Backbone:
């Protein structure tokens, strides 16, 4: 199942995480790293912090799969309505 829409959604999520992870390098306030941690939810509660990038990859995979399924269903419904 290949979907350009799903790939763009997952890439946007990963770019948002990269920006959120880089933000504490420029701003040294107390909660500067919080957005990056919030992008790892809900898995950050269940796994150790050493697997944080794995949680981000899992979220990107889930986003990709959900958007690919939505794209497939939308195109399927459009084909059914036209036929």
Residues:
């Amino acid at each position: 199942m290949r979907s350009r829409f799903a790939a763009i959604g997952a890439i946007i999520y990963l770019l948002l995480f990269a920006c959120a992870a880089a933000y504490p390098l420029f701003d040294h306030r107390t909660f500067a790293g919080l957005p990056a941690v919030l992008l790892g939810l809900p898995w950050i509660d269940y796994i150790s912090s050493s697997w944080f990038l794995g949680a981000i990859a899992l979220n990107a995979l889930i986003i990709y799969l959900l958007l690919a399924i939505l794209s497939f269903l939308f195109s399927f419904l459009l084909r059914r309505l036209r036929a």
Summary: The chain is about 70% helix and 0% strand.
